[in-house]
Amino acid sequence: MMPALLLALLQVAAPTVGDTIWIERRLPLPGGAEVRPAQWPLEGNLGLLGRPVVRRDGGDVIVAYPVVAWAAGSHQLTVPGPILIRADGRSDTLPAEARTIEVASVLPAGAEPERIAPQPEAGIVAERITSPLPILFTLLLAGALFAPIAWWWLRRGPPMNAARPEFPPVELPLDEWSEAGEHRAVAVVAARALRRTITGLLPGTAPAINYYLVAVTAAERPELLRLAHRLRDAGHSVEYGFRQQGVGKQLKAAAAVGARKAVILGPDEVAEGVVVVRALESGEELRVSADRLVQG
Q1: Between the N and C ends of the chain, which has fewer C-beta atoms within 10 Å?
Q2: Residue 261 forms part of a structural domain
Q3: For residue 211, which phi and psi values (nearest 5 degrees)?
Q4: How many domains does the chain have?
Q5: 97-113 pLDDT, tens digit each
Q6: Is the residue at 244 inside a domain?
Q7: Within 130-288, where are the H helices?
Q8: How confident is residue 34, by pLDDT bands cut at 50, 70 and 90?
Q9: Do 201 and 217 sit in the same domain of this protein?
């Protein structure tokens, strides 16, 4: 049994032309030393396929070169000696080593190359056909996954407005204003209460207000109050807001009380001594002087 196994090991097939043949050199590695492979320029029917590989095997180091033979037969090689770098910095180049390798032919044994028939023609390589089905399937799957979310989003309806807190109405200190001599302010509040009462008793007959004064910023409030006094002294019905608001809200308030025109005072108008008169029904605007507005 043992002789048959040894015979089988000895009958290992030789490398053929074009195979990668690893030429190895084994050497013991002294302590603290380093091994580097030397350059190996091959010529003729032999060639180097890549960089040499250095690996450890126990206490030894193996330097392997990948070699290829381009012709069959026996080839004589001179494997260069590796470079040994010792721990103290000294380096030694080991002597080269002669090797002989046998390379078999890839052609059938005993056949003349000129008489070997060429290989049959290879078939046509089928081109890969791309199909849109995977993309369509992915889109359908994504639609099926997101359809319930879209249905829920559409079914949920418009967002609900948060309920605004209701504040109790603030009672104006009319008695204190009257004692302080602010009779005009008391009269304005009384006139508004009278208008609301008349409107409630006679629907559709809201008393006419000639002008509703609008201040663009709080800086124009003093000029607004002076203009209101002048207009009332001239016999015009005038209204304005008690607290500063945006221009849009003041115009809405003017329309709510039934004012015919809004008189707008901004920084430029105060500086020029003019006002902007807007007809609330038509939206037409006219810049006139404050004196002309008072004179009617």
Answers
A1: N
A2: yes
A3: -135, 140
A4: 3
A5: 888 989 888 777 777 77
A6: yes
A7: 133-155, 174-179, 183-201, 221-233, 247-256, 267-272
A8: confident
A9: no
